[in-house]
Write a structure and sequence with these properties.
Elements (H helix, E strand, L loop, with lengths): L26 H37 L5 H19 L3
């Protein structure tokens, strides 16, 4: 039975394709990885929501741009800045 430690005691093991689950992570490690992934997903969902709100606002602004020219110019400047930041100037 493998102890998970190398002969030198450093904690590094060599993964052999013939070993019995010596390289698979423990259930606790899997749970920690899933928790970290869940935190990451929450940030992505929040960023997507903020971008959706921004897109909705700019689209609504485009409908009334003739009535509010200064606000339309500010919205266009914001859209250009975000495009350069998010897409690298494409």
């Amino acid at each position: 039975m493998a102890t998970g430690l190398s002969p030198s005691g450093t904690g590094r093991t060599s993964c052999s394709p013939f070993a019995e689950d010596s390289c698979s992570p423990s259930p606790a490690t899997r749970r920690e990885a899933l928790r970290g992934r869940a935190r990451y997903v929450e940030h992505v969902v929040f960023a997507a929501f903020v971008l959706w709100l921004l897109g909705t606002g700019l689209t609504t602004l485009a409908l009334v741009a003739g009535q509010f020219p200064r606000l339309a110019a500010a919205g266009a400047a914001l859209a250009r800045a975000l495009r350069r930041y998010l897409l690298g100037g494409l």
